[in-house]
Specification:
Layout (H helix, E strand, L loop, with lengths): L3 H17 L19 E5 L1 H5 L3 H18 L10 E10 L8 H4 L9 E11 L5 E12 L9 H19 L1
Parallel strand pairs: 1-2
Antiparallel strand pairs: 2-3, 3-4
Length: 169
């Protein structure tokens, strides 16, 4: 058994080494709790616009913002943080029916999925990020009776994405 002064010295040395390596600096990773109420909602589609999606990105942003206001209407509080949804990517399958006419509407497999990536942020009064929630949403297009046009599918996907956020937060 080591003398207590030597054990203390080794413990300090080990902790200092781990902290210097960035392994002990913040402690264990914790899930960030999202606030219960928000003062405002906004949608940032700058990543989509940077990919050249311009008006399409605006359509997605407006659909997501409308759904945020509807889905989170009961969680408004002027003293709460701002809720910012950053949408980073949208994928619409080029084959929305995925050959469903060959397999039937209820049992087909295949890649008839649209997807959206993004992150919900709770922003404090000084612009600091209080909480973040990354999310990947996938919507099975073949199981829905939607118009195969891209704008309609993009709106449905944005609405689904926000509704899923509501369930998760």
């Amino acid at each position: 058994m080591l003398p207590s002064s030597r054990r203390s010295f080794l413990k300090k040395l080990t902790c200092a080494g781990l902290a210097g390596a960035g392994l002990l600096a913040r402690g264990p990773a914790q899930a960030q709790a999202f606030p219960e109420a928000f003062s405002s909602f906004s949608v940032d589609v700058a990543p989509l616009k940077a990919k050249g999606l311009g008006p399409f990105a605006d359509l997605v942003a407006q659909a997501a913002l409308d759904e945020l206001r509807r889905s989170f209407a009961d969680r408004m509080n002027p003293r709460g943080p701002r809720f910012v949804l950053v949408i980073t990517d949208v994928f619409l399958t080029p084959f929305p029916d995925a050959g469903s006419s060959l397999r039937g509407r209820d049992g087909g497999g295949g890649g008839s999925h649209d997807g959206m990536d993004g992150e919900a942020l709770a922003i404090g009064p000084r612009g600091e990020i209080l909480a973040r929630h990354p999310q990947h949403g996938v919507l099975d297009v073949a199981r829905r009776s939607t118009d195969p046009d891209e704008p309609g599918r993009a709106v449905a996907l944005a609405q689904f994405y926000v509704q899923w956020l509501r369930r998760r937060l």
